[in-house]
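Blinded run. Sample ID left blank on purpose so nobody reads anything into the name before looking at the predicted structure. Input follows.
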Amino acid sequence: MTREDEIGKLEKQFMISRDSEHEKFKTEFLNEYFESLNISTNKPDWNILILQAMSFKEFQDCKALLDMLDDEDYVIKYKYHLETTFSNMVDWFLKEKLGINSRPLPAYASNNRKVSLLDLYMVVKREKGSPRTACGQ
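Blinded prediction complete.
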């Protein structure tokens, strides 16, 4: 096992333990939120079904998702589902196109907070792709 593989393995183990805490909090919060909504309709939301069905096999699939992110109201409304789909897209790209399999996703900041790749993408996009402006410089 190379040093890179060993570091990747340790990072994955750490992320799994941090993810379980985050997922537990998120699940409890979402359950309470949806129980308080009192939804009376049984109509499926096609946007959610489309996002859940998306898979990534070529760049056109990525472009389709990125085109959906042009409408910020749409991003706000379907943020939870978009975050999952966006992470799946980045994961596919890193593994299939770049061959990176040793690092866990999502990335974590130095203070052990999960980095929302969707939020990061939206900030850079909003600032017209300038990393200096997106970082507040």
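Unblinding after everyone has recorded impressions. Residues 3-134 form one domain.
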